[in-house]
Amino acid sequence: MTEAKPSKKNKQTILVCQGTGCVSGKSLEITAALEKAVSDLKLKNVKIDFTGCHGFCEQGPVAIVEPEGIFYTHVGVDDAREIIESHIRDGKPVERLFYKDPATREAVPKYHDIKFYSKQQRIILRNCGHINPERIDDYINTGGYQALTKVLNEMTPEQVIGEIKRSGLRGRGGAGFSTGTKWEFLRNAAGEPKYMICNADEGDPGAFMDRSTMEADPHTVIEGMIIAAYTTGAAEGYIYIRAEYPLAVKRVRLALQQAEERNFLGDNILRSGFNFHIHVKEGAGAFVCGEETALMASIEGKRGMPRSRPPFPATSGLWGKPSNINNVKSLATVPEIINRGADWYAATGTEKSKGTCVFALTGKIANSGLIEVPMGIALREIIYEIGGGIPDGKQFKAVQTGGPSGGCLPATHLDESVDYESLSAAGSMMGSGGMVVMDEETCIVDIARYFLSFTQAESCGKCVPCRIGTKQMLDILERICRGEGEPGDIDLLVTLGTQIKAGSLCQLGQTAPNPVLTTIRYFREEYEAHINEKRCPALSCVNLINFYIDPDKCQGCGICLRSCPTECIAGDKRMVHVIDQDRCVKCGTCLDVCPDRFSAVTKLSAETMDVPSEPIPVKEKPKAAATG
Amino acid sequence: MIALAVDSLTKADVEDKMKALFSRHHGEKQELIPILQETQAQFRYLPAAAMKEIARFLRMPESTVYGVSTFYAQFKLTPLGKKIIRVCRGTACHVRGATKVLNELESRLGIKAGETTDDLEYTLETVACIGACALAPTMTIDNVTHGKMTAKKVAEVLGDRSEAKQEK
After folding, report:
1. CB–CB of A369 and B91 under 8 A?
2. How many domains would you assign to chain A?
3. Are residues A239 and A140 in the same domain?
4. Residues in chain A within 8 Å Cβ distance of B129
5. A404 and A300 in a common domain
6. Considering the domain boundaries, does residue A26 fall inside one?
């Protein structure tokens, strides 16, 4: 055994992803199984370690074998032994666990060759999936905390502000305000103490990049925050994290403790005389707390209700003191800008939107996951090259960015550049980075209804336009989806939406009508079909569709009859089955279970199929035709 | 403060635990939310008796404690089941069929979202987004995430419970 190639190899490391996605796929058990296999086989030249999220959650649980960069996907606990025996001991990587390109079906063994990764440019996510997030030394070994050292030893706060301004970094929380200018406001504000707050209350349904960053590389956020505090003169810091993210809370707390032990945090940081302390505040489940004034109210222990601005937080924020609220991604970018310079950062992106942006790419897309791309990339490139296109041969219909505050863009906008200005002009927005792809089976009216039901439920109720206006809009949309839409509804939605945008107190209300307004702008005919023809073109709204069993195709196998939860299918062996339309709840189970070779169940909207009223014998197929 | 019929805990029941909990805090108003979170971790909901103690400890009106408790989705004022099932209703889950998963759970457990089974075994909730969108549709049982859910998988993750219900 020992004379074979493996003995010559350098030490290998198997990095198992332990982000939330992969953990739910049993990656903790996989790590244990790999360790057990290594000890059973008494192998020396291999180390099992774990990392945070790689971003390619669709393929999870994932593991990388370094240094060769072999990428394993959909790893199971049972695969652990084979990976160790075949790959580590015998030098033969396990091919069946390689990533398969969704277009070509070809196996791609190496991480860097996979299109999902090779098209990305990772600055914020640079360490995610490559270091152990629970060990500060891993971060330090990749150059971590060098930016802080440089800032404390060589730069004045004014120089840091100048550098960040020159880099063109804009707030990644959605509004896109210049980070350097924001810091300058706080630095020049009168009053002590000053507070530096990290907004990690990522609440947009469909966005998970802040969570993944905190889970995979918490120190980069903390380092960015310390630099921000030094620059602005803040003495106390708060990281406000959603309580729904227990793993992120745990890793951030651990990272804070380690940073304090190494004196990157606390009193007299690195003997510079600068003091800074960070506290973790867990959110308690209120979307509106992502709004900065509501977030501060929540830290103070109050109901998280926004207030009107001005005064802006830089003048009067937390407890009435000057404060700054920065998004996780903005702070995570800061150390790299300091290390590599403003010019390096500004070289990426468009004229007004510099650097990279992170998206959580999800929905009807082959490669779901977390991606980081240069600003200015075309939507098409993200969806078809990185995302691998729409699965199951379906047609692209729309892409939604900006979460409940954003909009849906149709296929005609696929060549749109992804940056703050272009997305706003198209009626959507950058938002905090959710990107949900929809195919032909997604009903656009239902999507608008869905987003509004979310914002309506999350409205804090303080101002009237948002509290009552969103409820009215939602009522209208629900009526339309039920097939009770009336002429004039579309105009009424547009009027209401425009007024809510103009009259609401905070961003939640000011942006809540966006999904409705953009879908009316680009998919008006779909609204009209629901209202005028009582037809749902996507065959999705349950009140507007019917299921039928085609008497020419049904072979009387009885599978649908046995699966129907409401027992509304009549039939018998070799008899054509019939659905009782009055009792059908339109769950679609019959369509799902009908064997592909029959495909007898059809879904229709605003049309009917000629079917018998009760079961009749199955038509005999002429045998000659079948074989001929 | 509203006393709830199912909330049978009295001051004597909560006093010792609350005292221990308060000993870790200073009595500042900003501690209200962390204290409520710890109280809920202790009792699995916020007993009215405990909320009264909190108001006294932080020297604030009971109405303020009640107001904050009802503002945030995390806080529950009635006892929860032993296991908490949360169905994600985020965008990615919505377009990939979260409604079907929720309907299946509701019919198997015989309760609606937001309710608790009579035997106090399960509480069913929906959540805006658990941030595991690539695994959509997702649900969690306590802190365990189940991804790529289907109506069929609901029976698998519920285990015994779903069989018992089906036999009825």
Report:
1. no
2. 5
3. yes
4. 203-208, 244
5. no
6. yes
Is the alpha carbon torsion for B95, B96, B99, B100 positive or negative? positive
Whole-angstrom Cα distance, residue B43 to residue A242? Answer: 21
Classify residue A610: in a domain, yes or no.
no
Contact present, A88 and A43 (Cβ < 8 Å): yes
Whether A163 and A301 share a structural domain: yes
Residues A149, A250: one domain? yes
Q: Which chain B residues have any C-beta within 8 angstroms of a chain A C-beta? A: 29-34, 36-37, 67-68, 71-75, 89-96, 100, 103, 107, 127-136, 138, 143-147, 151
**Whole-complex ipTM:** 0.85
**pTM of the predicted model, to two decimals?**
0.90
Backbone angles phi, psi at A570, to 5 degrees: -105, 150
Domain boundary among A487, A510, A532: A532
SS3 of residue A87 by DSSP: helix
Q: Are residues A366 and A511 both part of a single domain? A: no
Any idea what the Cα angle at residue B33 is, between residues B32 and B36, rounded to 5°? Answer: 85
User: Pick from A205, A400, A587: which is nearest to B89 by CB?
Assistant: A205
Helix/strand/coil for B50:
helix
For chain A, list residues with pLDDT below 50: 1-8, 625-628
Kindly state the helix (H) or strand (E) to which residue B83 belongs, with its residue range: strand B83-88
How close B70 comes to chain A (CA, Å)?
9
Residue A44 vs residues A10, A37, A79, A422: alpha-carbon distances, Å: 11, 12, 20, 54
B8-22: pLDDT as tens digits: 788 889 999 999 999
Given this model, what pLDDT does residue B161 score?
63
Share the mean pLDDT of chain A: 92
Residue A101 in domain? yes
Q: Where in the sequence is the domain holding A105, given as residue range(s)?
A: 5-114
Burial class (CB in 10 A: 0-12, 13-18, 19+), A550: middle
pLDDT in tens, B71-83: 998 899 988 888 9
Asked whether residue A190 falls in the same domain as residue A331, the answer is: yes
B-contacting residues of A 157-186, CB under 8 Å?
A: none
In chain A, residues 482-511 whose CB comes closer than 8 Å to chain B: none
Is residue A124 assigned to a domain?
no
Beta-sheet pairing, A195-200 with A236-241: parallel
Same domain, A194 and A332: yes
Provide the chain A residues 227-246 that lie in CB contact (below 8 A) with chain B: 243-246
Nearest to A300 among B30, B103, B143 (CB): B30
Decide: residue A195, CB within 10 A, 0-12 exposed, 13-18 middle, 19+ buried: buried
Q: Is the Cα dihedral A611, A616, A622, A625 positive or negative?
A: positive
Query: Taking CB atoms and an 8 Å cutoff, what residues of chain A touch B73?
Result: 284-286
User: What's the gap in Å between the CA of A438 and the closest CA on chain B?
Assistant: 7
Same domain, yes or no, for A518 and A576? no
Q: Domain end: A491, A511, A532, which one?
A: A532
| Residue from A17, A18, A362, A396 to probe the interface with B (highest B Cβ count within 10 Å) | A362
- In whole angstroms, what is the distance from residue A127 CA to residue A139 CA? 8
Q: What is the 3-state secondary structure (H, E, C) of A48-85?
A: EEEECCCCCHHHCCCEEEECCCEEECCCCHHHHHHHHH
Domains, chain B, ordered by start: 11-71 (1.10.10), 83-167 (3.40.30.10)
